[in-house]
Design brief:
Layout lengths: L13 H5 L10 H10 L7 H20 L10 E5 L5 E3 H17 L2 E6 L6 E2 L11 E9 L10 E9 L9 H4 L8 E7 L3 E6 L4 E7 L4 E6 L10 E3 L10 H11 L10 E2 L5 H11 L2 E4 L12 H14 L3 E3 L19 E4 L1 H11 L7
Parallel strand pairs: 3-5, 11-12, 11-13
Antiparallel strand pairs: 1-2, 3-4, 5-6, 6-7, 7-8, 8-9, 9-10, 13-15, 14-15
Helix pairs in contact: 2-3, 3-4, 6-9
Bound molecules: 2,5-anhydro-1,6-di-O-phosphono-D-glucitol (AHG) and manganese (II) ion (2 copies).
Length: 360
């Protein structure tokens, strides 16, 4: 594995592209999944089909997103979701597409979505329930950014239904992040990417829109151990806990010998901020604030999946004190403070929060 994956290092060179031998060296997501499946004895292919279903829904959402501004899909539905947040039309559209794809695919027995108050059990048309996977989703993350043409994404987390569980219900989904068997995201950015892990490294695929395939463009992503940028909504500075304010002061200090002050990079779309930091290094923080005393991001379908990915890429994720993946969830929509990204940066933030380091 490379120590740091440079974005685009795997890209086909421009002359080759122009000569028409475009993508022969790229593997499609489908080929990649099948190859991995073949290496697992007694694999039934169910998991591969589940990933394919998610990628198809991602392509449909991507298609619709590319028309925002032309077709009347941007803007709010006039409804407020279970989190008390204004629902965007694209939130509902993305939720519906993912639920539809998972129902049609038949491998998923329970869905938990940001856009639905309760967990959604899935039964097949015959009434039999044979899907073995639970999928938790943020169908559209950063959705308030759509109207202004800024990158947004979908985040997903996958668990197995515990053996002999009976009728799948919320209890089956409330497992620690360590039990995830896969997690990923689709970022609808300057290009559309599907990034996922099954606990065996992180791989990124870029959508080639003319052939409708995700192609392996970012194999075995590794995130830098440290970097010089941080992502936080600093407008909330006055309601941060003292240790965090100290850490920010430390990052802003004029200490050119070690690269300080660091730069702030905050898109306000978690998945996009995370994706940049994964490739370039950095730390993303959404801490407890006065308005959101438990933080703003959701443990089950925002923090856990990206914590799994960042750890698989060599990074770290915590709530400031405890490893995210070890948290025992109590509710589908529960929130958590989040410190996620380059390992050394998250460790330093934890030391500041614990009062073991000060800005000086
Ligand atoms: P969502 O669109 O799924 O509700 O998530 C919005 C989240 C996250 O994407 C982003 O990082 C954060 O809200 C931004 O919050 P602030 O505006 O408070 O910084
Ligand atoms: Mn979100
Ligand atoms: Mn969302």
């Amino acid at each position: 594995m490379n120590d740091v994956s440079a974005p685009g290092q795997h890209a086909v060179n421009f002359e080759t592209w122009m000569s028409g031998q475009n993508y022969t060296r790229f593997k499609t997501l489908e080929q990649f999944i099948i190859e991995r499946q073949d290496s697992i004895p007694h694999s039934t292919g169910a998991f591969s089909r589940l990933i394919r279903d998610l990628s198809v829904a991602g392509k449909i959402v991507n298609r619709d997103m590319r028309r925002a501004g032309l077709v009347d899909i941007a803007g709010t539905t006039g409804e407020v979701n279970v989190q008390g947040e204004v629902q965007q039309k694209m939130d509902m559209l993305a939720h519906n597409e993912f639920v539809r794809a998972l129902k049609r695919g038949g491998e998923c027995c329970l869905i938990g979505s940001e856009e639905h108050a309760e967990a959604i059990p899935i039964s097949t048309q015959s009434g039999d329930q044979d899907g073995q996977y639970i999928v938790l989703l943020d169908p559209l993350d950063g959705s308030s950014n759509i109207e202004v043409n800024v990158s947004v994404g979908t985040i997903f987390s996958i668990y197995r239904l515990p053996d002999d569980y009976g009728e799948p219900d919320l209890g089956a989904a409330l497992q620690a992040g360590l039990n995830q068997i896969a997690a990923g995201y689709i970022v609808y950015g300057s290009s559309t990417m599907f990034v996922y892990t099954t606990g065996d490294g992180v791989n990124g695929f870029t959508l080639e829109p003319s052939i409708g395939e995700f192609l392996l463009s970012h194999p075995e992503i590794r995130t830098p151990k440290t970097a010089r940028s941080y992502s936080i909504n600093e407008g909330n500075y006055n309601s941060f806990e003292p240790g965090l304010r100290e850490y920010i002061k430390w990052m802003q200090a004029l200490e050119p010998h070690d690269g300080r002050p660091y730069s702030t990079r905050y898109i306000g779309s978690f998945v996009s901020d995370f994706h940049r930091n994964l490739l370039k290094g950095g730390i993303y923080i959404y801490p407890a604030t006065e308005k959101n005393p438990d933080g703003k991001l959701r443990l089950m379908y925002e923090a856990n999946p990206l914590a799994f990915i960042v750890e698989q890429a060599g990074g770290r994720a915590s709530d400031g004190h405890q490893r995210i993946l070890e948290r025992t969830p109590e509710a589908l929509h529960q929130r958590t403070p989040l410190y996620i990204g380059s390992e050394e940066m998250v460790l330093r933030a934890e030391r500041f929060l614990a009062g073991k380091e000060v800005a000086g």
